[in-house]
Amino acid sequence: MKNKKELAIALFFTLNGALAILILTGIFYLLLSNSFYAWRDVGFWRFLTGLEWRPAGFSHSLYGIRTLIVGTLMVTAGSMIIAVPLGIGCAAYLAEVASPIEREIIKPVVEVLAAVPSVVLGFFGIVVLSPLLAKVFNLPNGLNALNGSILLALMSLPTIISIAEDALAAVPREYKEASLALGANRVQTLRHVLLPAAGSGVTAAVMLGVGRAIGETMTVIMATGNALKSPTGYFSSVRTLTATIAIELGEVPYNTTHYYALFAIGFVLFTMTFAVSLLADIFLHRASEVGKR
Amino acid sequence: MFNSEERIEINVENLNLYYGKFQALKSVDIYIKKNQVTALIGPSGCGKSTFLRTLNRLNDLIESVKIEGSITINGEDIYDKNCDVVTLRKKVGMVFQKPNPFPKTIYENVAYGPRIHGINDRKTLNIIVEKSLREAALWDEVKDDLNRSAMRLSGGQQQRLCIARVLAVEPDVVLMDEPTSALDPIATQKIEDLIRDLKKKFTIVIVTHNMQQAARISDTTVFFLNGEVIEIGSTELLFTRPKNPKTEDYITGKFG
């Protein structure tokens, strides 16, 4: 009797686990099978490397996503340039310098930052950041890659801070004491002992931040201007992969090359985020191995 | 026995230490002689480790600690406002209970201290690393591959590496907090031999749970109980003719 019950419970959890895998493979299959039609019509390399995305071309349509990939990479890289030093710095402050009271205040604030809906951040980008950037850098408008980068940095900061702080806090106390007992000050201890020891965890934090930034849609649609021309710098308007899908999928006629091409963009995006998550996972795994000694 | 070199290096007077409201050390008076091994013994929680950590101000890390009284090392009050903790910790090194090498190479572990104190010249560092590893009786076992991770050494080797790491900053005093409690008997014996050797150059203060160890290696023994110093004296006398009945009860194993 008891055996049957245990078996049922085991089965229940197995099914739950299997469901997650099933859904993931389902999405993968859906994206890939539809992408094939796009690649058949356009050609795989021309799709990936083509400069122009002109689905409603007058004489003929063009489906090249290089500009979009560049847009996504620019905005992601820009956001990381801002968020990584800030995030690791904040994590280090929380883990090593902050008094318990400061920690009690800062940590929830950071978590609330994670809870701000992306559309609200986009709103902030349009109403506050855009005029500000236009004024400071003397631009016609502030809807550009820089604006998107700043907003994405804000979005990925909580992830980076909390995971990097966990990694720093997990460094055995003995390392810190050994370093301080040798006459090192706090900054030296942090730089030469704690951060290297927490290296894998901190890297994982950055990777997860990258994943967050690549996949983000609403904020970048609102903040980056979405122009379909090759960007010339961070003051150019850019269009990301995510924005393209979100903008166009609602209006595209079904079962056209355009429709399939959007799926193919989805597939590219999925591959990118998957690779980043996988890397993060490998680093996190390595971090826990180090912790075990 | 009556060596004129027997100079007092550390002098502790009327030291009181509180963790919040709990008083962990009660008017402790201790002298520690230069180039001797001083053993601190007593049951768990009697304050001996806490006392050890007052000597390099490692207790400063704990928020709620309050310290009264005076500790002078070489005549300098280490709790004076003008005392620089970095300089103090350079002079007073510490070896911990659990071997705690950094997750770096053997070389980097030993070179860490000199580096943070501003020595970056590779040749000088090489010399310091070799000298320290020799002093810690580890050189012959690791000289072939100094770039190996310290984590791959055995526990006893790791502890000797930690000793080498301390010696590399050339301290006057080496504090040891139960340095052999995590080691097997053979590794323990090696460390004990090393301690006997090191006292020629350094003043050593060692906390130990093991009374035989204290008897074997120390010159002076301090018996702590409930945060108080019950007895302090030459190891030989303290173990053979203790003055205080509580000391006798402890060393004969009536409690502990």
Description:
The complex is a heterodimer of chains A (293) and B (256). With 293 residues, chain A is mostly helical. Chain A has a single domain (62-292), classed as MetI-like fold, CATH 1.10.3720.10. Chain A has helices spanning 2-42, 44-49, 66-97, 100-115, 118-137, 145-169, 173-181, 186-197, 199-215, 218-223, 241-248, 257-292, and strands at residues 53-54, 62-63. In chain A, strand 1 and strand 2 (62-63) form a beta hairpin. In chain A, helix 3 runs parallel beside helix 6 and helix 9 packs antiparallel against helix 12. The longest helix of chain A is centred in the N-terminal third of the chain and has 41 residues, at 2-42. In chain A, 41% of the residues are buried. By secondary structure, chain B is an alpha/beta fold. Helix content of chain B is 35%, strand content 26%. Chain B is globular, with a radius of gyration of 18 Å. In chain B, 46% of the residues are buried. The mean pLDDT of chain B is 92.
